[in-house]
Amino acid sequence: MATKRKEAPQPYPVFESATEIEKLAGVYFKACKGKPLTEKDAETGKKVEVLDKNKQPVYLGQYPPTLSGLALALGFNGRLHMLGCKLADETQQTALLKAQSTVEKYVEECLHDKETMQGAKFILMNNFASWREKGKNDDEPLPNDGQAFEVKIKIVNE
Questions:
Q1: Torsion from C-alpha of 11, 13, 18, 20, nearest 10 degrees
Q2: What are 37-40's contacts with CB under 8 Å, separation 24+?
Q3: Domain limits, the chain
């Protein structure tokens, strides 16, 4: 059994175990799925799921899983707070990364839809290090280091 951290060096949530992280994440992901819409069957009188034009169940209250939503469900202050978290217990850190990977998987699936592809690319590049462009270093300051700078533009007639 993992040991409980009584005093966290940073204001991160304190988890009893990796199982607690998995359960909290599971509750969040289940809530994202929503509840199936049902109606009474005219012939049998039993409740049946309503299907869309593609014969897929229709869900009420369905919403996409997000890193911000996951972070709040786990007790973090927000997305960046969770992304910067390094838990002392390796199994807890693995459970946290697995939950984040579930969100990443959902966003990756959005890359296959032309309507959501650009938004998915933006989310992946800004939230998941492995999706950042090669050569981009997050630790580097901006070229102008936050100061004003001058831009010269030369217009060349063709």
A1: 180
A2: none
A3: 18-131
Query: What pTM did the predictor assign?
Result: 0.71
Quick one: CA dihedral 64, 67, 72, 78, positive or negative? Answer: negative
Which DSSP helix (H) or strand (E) runs through 138? none
Alpha helices in the chain (DSSP H): 18-33, 67-74, 79-83, 90-110, 117-127
Mean pLDDT of all residues in the chain?
85
The share of the chain scoring above pLDDT 70, in percent, equals 80
The enclosing H or E element of 89 equals none
**CATH: 2.60.40, 1.10.132, 3.40.1350, 3.30.750. Which one for 18-131?**
1.10.132
